[in-house]
Amino acid sequence: MSQQTVNGVPSRGKVLTLDNMNPNVKRVEYAVRGPIVQRAVQIEKELKEGVKKPFSEVIKANIGDAHAMGQKPITFLRQVLALCSYPELLEDNKFPEDAKKRAKRILQACGGHSIGAYSASQGIECVRQDVARYIEKRDGGISSNPDNIYLSTGASDAIVTMLKLLVCGEGRDRTGVMISIPQYPLYSAALADLGAVQVSYYLDEDKCWSLDVAELRRSLNAARQHCNPRVLCIINPGNPTGQVQSRQCIEDVIRFAKEEHLFLMADEVYQDNVYAEGCKFHSFKKVLFEMGPEYSSTVEMASFHSTSKCYMGECGFRGGYMEIINMDPEVKAQLTKLVSVRLCPPVPGQALLDLVVNPPQPDEPSYTTFMKERTVVLADLAEKARLTEQIFNKVPGITCNPVQGAMYTFPRITLSQKAIDKAKEEGQVPDMFYCMKLLEEEGICLVPGSGFGQREGTFHFRMTILPPTEKLKVVLHKISEFHLRFTQEFS
Amino acid sequence: MCAGNKLQNFRVKSLVSVMVCSLTSHPLSSSPGRALSSLSATRRGLPKEKMSENGVSSRAKVLTIDTMNPTVKKVEYAVRGPIVQRAVELERELSEGIKKPFAEVIKANIGDAHAMGQQPITFFRQVLALCSYPELLNDSTFPEDAKSRARRILQSCGGNSMGSYSASQGIDSVRQDVARYIERRDGGVPCDPDNIYLTTGASDGIVTMLKLLVCGEGATRTGVMISIPQYPLYSAALAELGAVQINYYLNEEKCWSMDISELQRALDEARRHCNPRALCIINPGNPTGQVQSRQCIEDVIRFAAKERLFLMADEVYQDNVYADGCQFHSFKKVLFEMGPEYSNTVELVSFHSTSKCYMGECGFRGGYMEIINMDNEVKAQLTKLVSVRLCPPVPGQALMDLVVNPPQPGEPSYENFIKERTATLSALAEKAKLTEQVLNTVQGISCNPVQGAMYSFPRITISAKAVKEATDKGQQPDMFYCMKMLEETGICLVPGSGFGQKDGTYHFRMTILPPTDKLKILLNKVKEFHQKFTQQYT
């Protein structure tokens, strides 16, 4: 037991210290809210206290948080939520009938007609039914069973739960999980927390961050030397890379998963965020079922969706769902048991998800406004995606793939040897050094590429395209100028 | 073997196995042989062939009961276990017109106040509606204090919207309000908002803290002391984390009170096979309803200091105290009143939630924890860990803010708020008394006073004949009892075995939440059932 002496009085060490805490937790890293964001929050505080900076506000382009960037909530969604929160408003004639109808339906499905009651652990039944119908419509009629839908606390919750189910074995038998590099760091964080083996496969930056089955195979074979790879995770549209996978690519991945006996996890939270011409979102489930029963009745898969992205951007409600396909019934019973321990996902988030999968219909009073609001958000995003690519690609030393979908750009930046050496001197990875400097000089908060993973010797950052167009232009120009300055300083 | 059978079998065994396994072996070391063979096969990329179906060979699933996470299999959560699943089935059958000896299923298994008809507090819901749809801020029908709360909350949200992520630790202004609430509650003992973490219900905070604490292998594996009976979130979380569950028994004869010599016994025994590092207390008690005396809390703190245990105080029922002479004392307040020798050293975390007390807002999943004397480096790790899940649900955070900062005297909503709050709490107090009284009139049921919380945990006498029949059916005797009660009366309770109990004793947990009239009917039905059951098995 460690004993220290403070002011001559022997004091015992804490019960819980860095040395005797859960070692897996120590290995967890989550760059999206890492040191750079902590510094950004500090700088904001300093600005508020009147400390002089070369900028007047901090722009947080580190996270896909649409409302924080000024995107307005969809009126219909919020009307229904207000009605559910305070049902006395159902008497108020300011609210449209379709909003009232949705609210009544949701409340009727809640215990005691209150969103304050726990729901079933798997989620409110009628919401799960609506989700299933939404998936059927999305996938051209392929059937979806509400029993296979699990509502969740954001998509993150469901992803971690699925990974948790999959992890077993020790040493060479320990479960390996294939994730893309670059990846969304929830995956690496969850794998560290669970003590699973991260198996990295690289996306091809030169081909617009596309996924290549040969690379999957290389990575799998290498991993089989030291662990038991059982899961393949895909993010489509990609985060942080913004690529949208072709139907052909998805077919290849499914074939690969079947051949190699892998459980597929398809993170499809950006399914409405597709901007590039010629690109289209194809759900893994639809492609799976179009490949015929040989695949659709065997390949095990979970697909994730959320209320946080797309045109809604309702991150704070922590709504989401997953659909499981071909899961072993005994495992499914275990899954149901496991989620019951946390009682239920937040009910306001469940209500919101219901509205997302069951929005106003053409003959309903809110339809026109809803479509207008939705279209404006998505059209703006498409424009900002283009703008970002164009401006960055004009800067010598920055190359940027088209932002085909999702909400981020992940441009490659050239850093000179001198800059790299300087970073090393400061004990930082080079792109962290770059981003930290950008934050201090311009007040722009990005996430260094190293937080997502990248090929050795390459450097990137992730930036959301969410700021309002005018502000985004300013951000892009500031970054361009900074990059030129930085390049000069370290040439 | 049919899957259903296998599952049931597993369930019966596993309660035992949680206790045994957690005491004897590391959870990851117990893979059955067939699981191993299938693992090594898949590792080589040669998935094992399953039986031949219609001449076509079909491969086994990637993820099967044999190849899934073994710690997940050990998780048990009786509050939503098989009896509740059967209750849901019965409800469906009733709605399909199938005849039953009852007209409705009464779910007294879970502390879900609104589901039992309790009305939400008007003020809370007004503010939540305003936050959801800020256009209502122009609506003159909403009181000014509700509007000013809503504005304050919205101003601390990114883009003035509840749809933004908050800081992972929770909204700054909410954490400040929580800190001030704690200071008021604890007679001025200071509270730093930096030590407040908002959570997704208290469950989330509890699991996060346990996760931080778990380390070591074999005899150095972290052990966590929990009461028996306990709230099964604890045993479930420990099973999942592969930590060692250390049981200390509450004293049923002394109103479920806690006894230091029993803590010492449990600790000394556990030290032989694990490294006990944390002591969990639920006060007021779930499922037992006892309220700890100030003296008892002092003793516990002294014990934790002496034995170097991290204290976890689950205080989600802090407003639910009914019995004369009982009062809620927070662990933090007592800790600080014991002087710097304790208040500077004992590591403590305390949990609260929006789901219980007079609010009963379970669906919003609001909650917080306060950490005290946590090592700075560990705190940084905690902050990092919670950041991965981005943030607790913002509507739950907003609700938490209202709970800790309710209408004040002089504000327009004050009177109505106090009226609603008082009505709920005094109805609960009445129901607590009623439950104890009625159950104690039944021969073969003995029930401690429900001093606090929301449950009664009466002891039931089950005859040897009934025990035998249950055993023959492969059920725990109290599960057999509760299942039979459900089928015959439509009342859904949770068997005591789901919470843990002394060997050879049997209990059930029942919430006292149904409206008084319904509760009376329910209690009488329980009474009649028990008499019939006793007669049937004499």
UniProtKB/TrEMBL annotation, chain A:
Reaction(s) this enzyme catalyzes, per UniProt: L-alanine + 2-oxoglutarate = pyruvate + L-glutamate
GO terms for biological process, alphabetical:
L-alanine catabolic process
Cleaved signal peptide residues: none
> Which cofactors, by name?
pyridoxal 5'-phosphate
Among CDD domains, the record links this protein to: AAT_like
Q: Which residues form the Aminotransferase class I/classII large domain?
A: 80-479
Superkingdom of source: Eukaryota
Top enzyme class, one word, equals transferase
Q: Where in the cell is it found?
A: Cytoplasm
SUPFAM superfamilies given in the database record = PLP-dependent transferases
Please provide, in alphabetical order, the Gene Ontology terms of the cellular component aspect for this entry: cytoplasm
What residues form the membrane-spanning segments? none
Q: Which UniProt keywords apply?
A: Acetylation, Aminotransferase, Cytoplasm, Phosphoprotein, Pyridoxal phosphate, Transferase
E.C. no? 2.6.1.2
This protein's pathway reads:
Amino-acid degradation; L-alanine degradation via transaminase pathway; pyruvate from L-alanine: step 1/1
Q: GO molecular function terms here?
A: L-alanine:2-oxoglutarate aminotransferase activity; pyridoxal phosphate binding
What this chain does, per the entry, is described as: Catalyzes the reversible transamination between alanine and 2-oxoglutarate to form pyruvate and glutamate. Participates in cellular nitrogen metabolism and also in liver gluconeogenesis starting with precursors transported from skeletal muscles.
Similarity-based family: Belongs to the class-I pyridoxal-phosphate-dependent aminotransferase family. Alanine aminotransferase subfamily.
Q: How does it assemble?
A: Homodimer.
Q: What is this protein called?
A: Alanine aminotransferase 1
Q: Which gene encodes it?
A: GPT2L
TrEMBL record, chain B:
Query: What Gene3D superfamilies does the annotation carry?
Result: 1.10.287.1970, Aspartate Aminotransferase, domain 1, Type I PLP-dependent aspartate aminotransferase-like (Major domain)
Q: Where is the signal peptide?
A: none
**Keyword Transferase set for record:** yes
Low complexity bias: start-end ranges: 27-41
Entry superkingdom: Eukaryota
Task: Identify a single GO molecular function assigned to this protein.
Answer: L-alanine:2-oxoglutarate aminotransferase activity
An example Gene Ontology biological process:
L-alanine catabolic process
Q: Which UniProt keywords apply?
A: Aminotransferase, Pyridoxal phosphate, Transferase
Under InterPro entries, the record lists:
ALAT1/2-like, Aminotransferase_I/II_large, PyrdxlP-dep_Trfase, PyrdxlP-dep_Trfase_major, PyrdxlP-dep_Trfase_small
Query: Can the keyword Glycoprotein be found in this entry's annotation?
Result: no
Q: Give the catalytic activity.
A: L-alanine + 2-oxoglutarate = pyruvate + L-glutamate
The segment(s) forming the Aminotransferase class I/classII large domain are 142-525
* Involved pathway(s): Amino-acid degradation; L-alanine degradation via transaminase pathway; pyruvate from L-alanine: step 1/1
Provide the family line.
Answer: Belongs to the class-I pyridoxal-phosphate-dependent aminotransferase family. Alanine aminotransferase subfamily.
Q: How does it assemble?
A: Homodimer.
This chain belongs to which protein, by name? alanine transaminase
Supply the gene name: gpt
